[in-house]
Amino acid sequence: MTDLLIHDAIVVTVDHENRILENGSVRVTDGTILSVEPTEPADRRSTAERVIDASGKVVIPGLIDAHRHTDFTLVQGLFSELPGDELLKEAFALYHTAESTLGDDFFEAAWRLACLRQLTHGVTTVNAMDFTPELGAEAIGETGLRGVIGPELADFLTPASAAEQLVDARRFIETYHDTFEGRVTASIAPGGEAGCSRTLWEGVAELRADYPGLRLHTHLYDSAAADTMAAGSGTDDPLDLLDRYGLLDERTLLTHLLHASRDDAQRIADAGAHVLHCPTVYSYFQAGTQTWFPLPALQEFGANVVIGLDDPFWFDSWDLIQESKHARLLANFEYGAQQWLSYDLLKMLTINAARALGLGGKIGSLEQGKRADLVVIDVNTPRHQPYSNIPSVLMNTVTAGDVETVVVEGDILMEDRSIKSMDVETVQTAAIRERKRFQRCTGWETSLAGSTPPDRSILRRVSGRLLLRAIKQYGRGVVNQYL
Fold first, then answer.
1. pLDDT tens for each residue of 192-225
2. 182 partner at 20 to 30 Å CA-CA among 54, 140, 147, 222?
């Protein structure tokens, strides 16, 4: 018997035929899509366990946030007006001290609030890189969402040694990979050439060899300073660093890639690696003086580019659809119109992101045999009607406020904008309580008009041991580059 039937919807399948059904039905049993076909009169009289009349609404695959840091969800608004350099320093200080100062209650509240926001924004899958991955796995699993989670490995950012972090990462993989009915999986997530020592990279290579089925999720900053840090590990640049340790292939996810050259783009595409593009964070704080994000070269060489929202430190947004719109506008501004078509953007948020995460055979499109991760969007409003070109409506005018119903693995997590899988009041109460405690513990001052960082010197708020690690790496890089 059909568990869930959605009928009379505009169904944007994102399947290999790019089908759009004007009046379509999606049938689901045991979390799996049975069929996606034109609606028949009998569908409106169905005896399925749960029937949704989606007249005037659009059904699309669940959205996938391809790059997210979640630990500090509760700092929203604190950093929004800081200059970029000051923001980086304050973020650095939090990374150094927050876990020991704030404890699990703070981060658990952050993860629960993040799940609530993702759910209400139509994000059914998140690819996260965080310092408290166990709390994230539990939150995502219990909420009913889907997540790929990697402990962020960075011995220049957190006090634990490379060896300790690698042991913790292995423990996380063994404990949480393929849990919560397969909705939670693990990744290997080194922070990048600017945050990791040679010892850590060597350990990451061993992890990759021991767990060949996992994605490697990292940052690639491709700047002069990043080249110097990579040189500290005995390589020419960040891509060479990955190559040296056998880490650049079709299982590799590279975040940012802001100033990569044409040759870099070809190396990435030839390796089959995926690019996780987060446009707003850099445009918010100025992208720099170099050419901005090599989209034409990546497209020319056939690299898979998908979209992520990055860190709530930066600009306080959870709307993935608006992020993709921003990606298009920035690309058009830099390179000329029509860099991405609307359907291309939708694929970046769904099937292409699923392929990047190694989940393309499971989610990312609405077709028979795939897991039933989907979103129902209300477009029967004056903001959208009348319309043609549904992909354009979805990518240009729809916002998270139009998301009405969210389904993961056939389970309805939100219906008619009512959350079913979480106690919203409990989540919000914990978030408010922990935000206030954060301010007391860290010295941040806030008001409705803005926020002020602690007045203590950053050198008094970070570990000298960590600074020495980073300085030594940079010094070795300078020697290797110039002497």
1. 988 889 999 999 999 999 999 999 999 998 777 7
2. 54
